[in-house]
Amino acid sequence: MQKLSETLEQLPGSLFIAGVNDYDAVPTFHGGFGDVYRASHQGRMVAVKRIRSFTSNAHRARLHVHSPSRLQQFLREALVWQGLHHRFILPLIGIDRDTFADSFCMVSPWMKEGTVLKYLETHGRTDVDRLLREIAKGLGYLHSKHIDHGDLRGANILISDAGHACLADFGLATTISEDITELLTSGSNRAGSVRWFAPELILPADFGCAKFTRTPASDVYAYACVCVELYTGRPPFADVTPETAAMFRVIRGERPRQPANMSEQLWRLVNAGWAPAPGTRPAVGDILALFPTPS
């Protein structure tokens, strides 16, 4: 379907949905790629993400509906997302183009438990290893489909009603691309993502990369950071400000300390995951093979 759409330069009508209604007047959550509104569709609660991209010269969100090629790329990636089916991946219901006249909105099921960070804060941390295993399985599925998440962190991991991890906000990093300078000068919510950035995303040339490019290896680095984040409830280098100071620590080879309750086996995997050289990091499948077994 994707190849046919690219050949015809058209997208299937099945990607778009109608009938989204009863949306809240104000967003429930301000995400890195858009503002999330609670709404209704076919009798169930849904999350409507009003997509925006960012420009460094404006220091504010701007909708890029004037760029057909960029919009077409975004819609094609949404088509890919719609075809993904995995219990640890947030499903896409479709694209809504009626609720907001100036925006395309991505519609997905409403996750009342919120993010994994909120869930652990409310329910305690006894399930951290199980959730980390589920996150790794979801990430491995994306990589098996040749999709890089690009922005893996606790804020982009939701919890289903059954208490399972669901990866969200993946793939959009390709369409809505920003280099490190833009992230730090745009004032966008995604500036905080640099705390999960692998060193090759900060200084590509110094770490064997031609340019700023998200890869499975940079996802694995971010996953290692997520392991620490879920154990501590805090982002990497939470005590270091500003963001640039945390970045310099990463470049120098420094990493967050081992959380008190993290097993030595998991800590070894974390250290392998955030190795300085991208090529030496394990694949997600290798991480799952060596992941601590439930006690």
Automatic annotation (TrEMBL):
Record-annotated Protein kinase domain positions: 22-295
Coiled coil: none
InterPro entries noted in UniProt: Kinase-like_dom_sf (IPR011009), Prot_kinase_dom (IPR000719), Ser-Thr/Tyr_kinase_cat_dom (IPR001245), Ser/Thr_Kinases-Pseudokinases (IPR051681), Tyr_kinase_AS (IPR008266)
Keywords assigned: Kinase, Transferase
GO molecular function: ATP binding; protein serine/threonine kinase activity
SUPFAM superfamilies, per database record: Protein kinase-like (PK-like) (SSF56112)
Entry-linked PANTHER family: SERINE/THREONINE-PROTEIN KINASE TNNI3K-RELATED (PTHR44329)
Name this polypeptide is given: Kinase-like domain-containing protein
Organism ancestry: Eukaryota, Fungi, Dikarya, Basidiomycota, Agaricomycotina
